[in-house]
Amino acid sequence: MFVINFVYTDKLIIRGNETELNWKVTGCHKITIANKTILPGNIKKLNIKLEKKINYLNINFYGIGGQKQTKKITIESTSPSVLSTFSFKTNLSDLSSVPLIRKNLKKTLDDSFNYQVPKKIKINKPKIVSRKLTINFESLIKTNHPINQ
Prior knowledge:
Blueprint: E1 2-8, E2 18-26, E3 28-33, E4 37-40, E5 45-49, E6 54-63, E7 68-76, H1 101-116
Antiparallel strand pairs: 1-2, 2-5, 3-4, 3-6, 6-7
């Protein structure tokens, strides 16, 4: 039995999310993780949910004839902290109790709609004026246009 490669992420993982473990092994008939989970030897990857800040994992690969290889890994996870909480409540119990708030809001809305209405623009039809054009042709005289020979 031979573990060819064993890969896991070294990126930041948020606690409660999953990470993926990948491996390639030959001659393996059983895999155990933390002596709790037993997998068949032909499994090539596993997703593990990280619940702790530091996750220690012992992965044992068992081959025919009592061969055993162990991979010990440590995966660290983090929990984002919130600097300040957001309160969706306001100190004013009823905004309509504020004097003139509704009138000012209505006036503001009415004024804003005035800017959105397009104004009509009068466009005059263009005048097309015909002009008397003359074309003068000049007869071709070869001596006036010498050709380099």
